[in-house]
Amino acid sequence: MKLRHTLVPTLRNDPSDAETNSHRFLIRAGLIRSLASGVYSYLPLGLRVLRNIERIVREEMEKAGAVEVLLPSLHPAELWQESGRWDLYGDELMRLKDRHGRSFALGATHEEAITALVRDEVKSYKKLPLTLFQIQTKFRDERRPRYGLLRGREFVMKDAYSFDATPEGLDRSYAVMYEAYSAIFRRCGLTFRSVEADSGSIGGTDTHEFMALADIGEDTIVHCESCGYAANIELAESAGRAADADLPEPGLAAALTDAASATMPGQPQTADTPDVRTITQLTRFLGVEAREIIKSLALLADGRPYVVLVRGDRELNETKVKRLLGASVVEMMSEADIAGLLGSVPGFIGPVDLDPKVGIVADEEVRGMPTAVVGANAVDRHLTGVVPERHFPVGRYGDLRMASPGDACKRCGEPLQFAKGIEVGHVFKLGTKYSEALRATFLDEHGRSLPYIMGCYGIGVSRLLSAIVEQHHDEAGIVWPAAVAPYGVHLIVIQTKDAAQAELAERLYRELRNAGCEVLLDDRDERPGAKFADADLLGLPLRVTIGKRAADGIVECKPRSAAEPFELEADKLPGYAAALTGH
């Protein structure tokens, strides 16, 4: 392609709304343009990268035995109502009505649509296993679109769905997709980790996320370098901290006065704590450590009231609470709910003497606390000397805390590591969640009607484009891996009006293309400095400059990742370029 005849509107300055390196470079290099918040147009070079990523995805999916389909983007509400997700999915689902008043949604995901298709078309176990995939635009009404393509309202996604007759069959399909995903991300040049994850609104049991490591990632990855354990922060398990070994005994003696201990031994004591609402304030006021305090949080789980307990130096993990309680929706209580359901006030909530209708669940670290400070359910009051199970009951214990620096790996005891990541892929074992809801069944070899056992496998194709740039750039611009670069070779003519340079450029343009190289020829009547700046910004694997030695058949070559250029005989360029770019 000749640059004069395509649309590559590069910018010299960073866009004002760009928050990440990938966002600013994709805009500056003229690969994408914003049409509305979270909605982008792909310009010629951006579309070429997108198509290269799609090609890699298709090749690995087909190698894994998956077959491509294309499903509608417009879904009737009845289908989502069958699965129970029409109300559950929430405000992210873009809903609309046709002229007849019939409700539809723009496809945010396609579990319902694919299950309905297979339900109607596949009736026998003889057609199983079956894995279908598509590459298609998805729509989600994100509350806060950000980071360019990383969190948008319209995006390109590859989603695949496996249908098996047995759980063992699903295990095999899952393993095949897991390996295919690993191959896709390696071919795209990504540094990534696969981590245990929560299935969220998709549902299912076993699930893994594939995370591209990046400082701007919205997800935190917890991993152990020793045993290989890795999980999303929402699911990460951890053992205690080394510092916990020296917890004081009996725990809170410093918080109790001698007089109180003498008059009411073993009983909780009320402490006046005027305007002391936070853990930090409480540690200073009572002279205790945060780990000697129980933090009480008031939640509604599917409408039922709970007080959830974690140690004062810990943060609550609501995803773990949701899983422990088997709840669909977990939300913090309002101030009115706290008053009406608990008889308490924010900042002073505690587990002692609550209405039995209020469930109490606690993080497993609470079980081992000899005594603790808790809220007294009255303004400016706390209780000291409280003993879990003795002074309040706990209905259920579990790992309900966020893993944090200083924690040990629960599997091997070594220190856990923390990193940021961008989710680029997610695989789920759905089981029969959707096949049962939509009555999608097959006849097994004994003539019994059974629900399909399903898996779901998604890759954010357009998000991959941004994740690659986030990992592959320098201060001057993008540094594309050869497998996904929009073109392999960037030919620059220094003086377009110089006959020798123009003639050599045209010859090399033809020869490189004949050798299988994809070439972008900068034949613009521009200053050399502007052309070199654009070349660095666009980040193609090989820059070839045709300048003053054109008459001698000599060109200057500079791989994008190299520090210095070198001269090469023009006749040797096609072979060198093909080897460098993989063509």
TrEMBL record:
Catalyzed reactions per annotation: tRNA(Pro) + L-proline + ATP = L-prolyl-tRNA(Pro) + AMP + diphosphate
Keywords: Aminoacyl-tRNA synthetase, ATP-binding, Cytoplasm, Ligase, Nucleotide-binding, Protein biosynthesis
GO molecular function list: proline-tRNA ligase activity
EC number(s) given by UniProt: 6.1.1.15
All copies of domain Aminoacyl-transfer RNA synthetases class-II family profile, residue ranges: 38-481
CDD domains cross-referenced by the UniProt entry: ProRS-INS, ProRS_anticodon_short, ProRS_core_prok
Subcellular location: Cytoplasm
PROSITE patterns listed in its UniProt record: AA_TRNA_LIGASE_II
Function: Catalyzes the attachment of proline to tRNA(Pro) in a two-step reaction: proline is first activated by ATP to form Pro-AMP and then transferred to the acceptor end of tRNA(Pro). As ProRS can inadvertently accommodate and process non-cognate amino acids such as alanine and cysteine, to avoid such errors it has two additional distinct editing activities against alanine. One activity is designated as 'pretransfer' editing and involves the tRNA(Pro)-independent hydrolysis of activated Ala-AMP.
UniProt similarity note: Belongs to the class-II aminoacyl-tRNA synthetase family. ProS type 1 subfamily.
PANTHER family assigned: MITOCHONDRIAL RIBOSOME PROTEIN L39/PROLYL-TRNA LIGASE FAMILY MEMBER, PROLINE--TRNA LIGASE
Domain writeup: Consists of three domains: the N-terminal catalytic domain, the editing domain and the C-terminal anticodon-binding domain.
Subunit (UniProt): Homodimer.
Protein name: Proline--tRNA ligase
Organism: Paenibacillus hodogayensis
